[in-house]
Amino acid sequence: MFEISETGKISGLEPLYKSKFIFALENGSCGVYDGKKRLWRLKGKYQATSIFGLIRKNKKKLTKMFVVIGWQNGKVEVIISLVQTSHVSKDKSRKFGGITV
To answer: Does CATH place domain 10-91 in 2.40.10?
Structure first.
């Protein structure tokens, strides 16, 4: 168990994989931690109303992290990150016209 300092109240917390988890704050910040280390964070104008994530490995043994954020204004954002041992690269360039749940 450990403590992490962020700048707002927690509105969502979801396990991702092993020691990784997704967080959402009331101030519109969302991101991913691996233990105590923050891998990335983004700040939205609106509060996140739902968060979901999953990890997938492909045939080349590359691991991708998918984080889906539903915002208060109705927008759904999918962030795809390549997970490597030393860093995480975030790719928000892919746009989705819709999502089916």
So the answer is: yes
